[in-house]
UniProtKB/TrEMBL annotation:
GO terms for biological process: astral microtubule organization; microtubule bundle formation; microtubule nucleation by microtubule organizing center; myelin assembly; negative regulation of tubulin deacetylation; oligodendrocyte development; positive regulation of myelination; positive regulation of protein polymerization. It comes from Crocodylus porosus (Saltwater crocodile). The keyword Cytoplasm applies. Pfam families: p25-alpha. The lineage of its organism: Eukaryota, Metazoa, Chordata, Craniata, Vertebrata. Residues 7-23 have a biased composition (Low complexity). InterPro entries: EF-hand-dom_pair, TPP/p25. GO terms for cellular component: cytosol; microtubule; microtubule bundle; mitochondrion; mitotic spindle; nucleus; perinuclear region of cytoplasm. This is Tubulin polymerization promoting protein.
């Protein structure tokens, strides 16, 4: 009998342990609360990203603007030699005396890697430090770097205007339609406007007049005028 009681007590303990290990069922989630929690998490992430973007210095912003200029595939993290030269020109780092375009190219080749064609932002700052020694010779190294940074901070690429047509006697003679001869002359009207298809193809003139006749279209007017005069003369005078 003691063995039966012991086995019964063991079974009851096992059942109670299993029931205790069971996790309580989850209550149905409130969809409104879930949406609010997601919105808050998104706002916190966006605010964090905005804070990171806001940490960019004015110098780095200028670097990125020039780095992507003229290249739709550029990420703004690296700059080509062409854009580096444009930055130095647009921001007046090149003054033609202390710093020339040759100096800019030499510094770029010195800073970039041997097998690389671009420079990073860190290398960009190193290049500016090299140029600052020439650009501001009368200042200390630290002051020279600050001055050259001021030239670039907050700047953006200067977009050139539309190229103006060159005015020269040769160009004027070639584009003056009043001086055209032969078949080229037939392609334009007296005002210089092109005739389009009529000026490129031989269209049949069915008017009955000789080509180039100055009084074309006056025949009908003359005939009608002569008929009316004849009618007036044929009427009896009362």
């Amino acid at each position: 009998m003691p063995s039966v009681e012991n086995s019964t007590m063991a079974d009851s303990k096992t059942k109670s342990a299993k029931s205790a290990n069971k996790t309580p069922p989850k209550s149905p989630a409130d969809p409104v609360k879930e949406k609010a929690a997601k919105r808050l998490s998104c706002e916190s992430n966006s605010s964090h990203e905005g804070a990171v973007a806001g940490e960019l210095s004015a110098l780095e912003e200028a670097f990125r603007k020039f780095a992507i200029h003229g290249d739709t595939r550029a990420t703004g993290k690296e700059m080509h030699g062409k854009n580096w030269s444009k930055l130095c020109k647009d921001c007046h780092v090149i003054d033609g005396k202390n710093v020339t375009i040759t100096d800019v190219d030499i510094v770029f080749s010195k800073i970039k890697g041997k097998s690389c064609r671009t420079i990073t932002f860190e290398q960009f700052k190193e290049a500016l430090q090299e140029l600052s020694k020439k650009r501001f010779k009368d200042k200390s190294d630290e002051e020279a770097v600050q001055e050259i940074h001021k030239l670039i901070e907050g700047k953006a690429p200067i977009i050139s205007g539309v190229t103006k047509a060159i005015s020269s006697p040769t160009v004027s003679r070639l584009t003056d339609t009043t001086k055209f001869t032969g078949s080229h002359k037939e392609r334009f009207d007296p005002s210089g406007k092109g005739k389009g298809k009529a000026g490129r193809e031989d269209l049949v003139d069915a008017s009955g007049y000789v080509s180039g006749y100055k009084h074309a279209g006056t025949y009908d007017h003359k005939v009608q005028g002569s008929k009316s005069d004849a009618r007036i003369k044929s009427q009896p005078v009362l």
